[in-house]
Write a structure and sequence with these properties.
8-stranded mixed β-sheet, alpha/beta, about 30% helix, 6-stranded parallel β-sheet, about 25% strand, globular
Length: about 350
Amino acid sequence: MSSKINVGFIGLSTKGGWASVAHVPYLKKSSIYTIKALSNSSIESAKSAAETFAIKKYYATPEELTQDPEVDTVVVSVKVPLHKRLITPALEQGKNAIVEWPLGRNLQEAEELTQLARSKDVKTMVVLQARQSSVVKKMKEIIDSGKLGTILSTHQYAAAFAWGATTNENIVYLADIENGANMITINGGHLMDAMCYILGEFDSVTATVHNSRKTIEVRDEKGKKIRDAPLTSHDQMSVSGVLTSGAYASVHIRGGSYKGTNLLWEIEGTHGELQVRGSIGLLQLSSPTLWASFDGGDMEEITPQDEQGSHVNVGRAYDEFAKEGGLYPTWEDAVVRHRMIEAIYKSAATGTKQTYKKTY
C-alpha cells in the first residue's frame, strides 16, 4: 500500500460509541492514516461528526463517500446488520475495505462480500483485534517456543456482559438473533478466534446453546425500566472438541456480568501451564493478566511490556494492515470464523458433531 492511507469512515458519531473510542484515538495521531471523509446515517450527523473530529469532507451516503477520489480505504464501524449494505459500494469502486467483526449477519453475507472483494482485487481486513492483544501475542510466543511442551488441553470461560438481565435502547438489537450480532458471534467469535489463532482450528465441534432468560429488561439512561424485549439471542453457549493440533478444547460463554469469574482461559501442556484472568469477559477490549507455570513451578504473573486496551489492539491491527506482508485477519479469515459459528449452531440444533472448512 502507499505510504499514506486515506480513509473514508462510515459510522463515526459525536454521540460516542465504539468508533470514537477504539478507532479515532489511533487514526487521528497516526502518521500513516488520514481520515479524509466520513459518512453517517444523515447529512446532519455527518456534518456534526466532521466538525467534532476536524475532518474536512462529509457525505450523506456511502455511495458518495466511495466516489471521492481521495479515499482509497473505507472503514465501516456500525451495527452488524448494516455491514454488507454499507461496504458494498466501496468494493464496487475498488476501494480497500476494513469492517468490524462479525463481517456479516451470517456466513452467506460474509462469503458474498469476500467473493466481491476478491473479484475487485481489493485488500481487506476484519477487526478481530484480540489477535493484537499483548497477552495473546505473549501466549503465542511462549507456545511457539515450545516451553509448554505438547499442548494437552485449553479451556475458556467468559461472561459476555450484554445478554444479561438488562440492556438499553442503543444495543437492544443485540437481543434479536436475526441481526447476527449476538453473544456467540461477537463474544464467541473474538474469544475463539484468539484461541484458534494460537492453537489451531477445531477439527470438529460439539455444541449446546440455550436461553436461560427468555426476555431482557430495557432501561433508559437513568436506569428506569421501559419495557421487556424478547431475547432470542442465546445467553449460554458451550463448545467442545479436539483441535487440529490434537489438543482438547472447551469453551463456555454466558450472558451478563458477575461478581465472580468473568474471564478465565487456561492452556495446559506437558511442561507448563498458562492462565489468563480478567475482570470482564471481553478479551479483545480489556487488559487481562497472564500467569504461567513451567516444569512444575508456581504460577507467576507475566507482565506484558506493551500497553493494553481496546484502542491499542485496534491500532495495532491498523499498523499491520498498512505493512507489506502484515499479520492481520483478512475477510477470508472471517469466512472461516463464520463457518465455525455455523457449525456450532448446526451441532446445537442437531445434537451431532460438526466439522467446517478451515481454509477459504
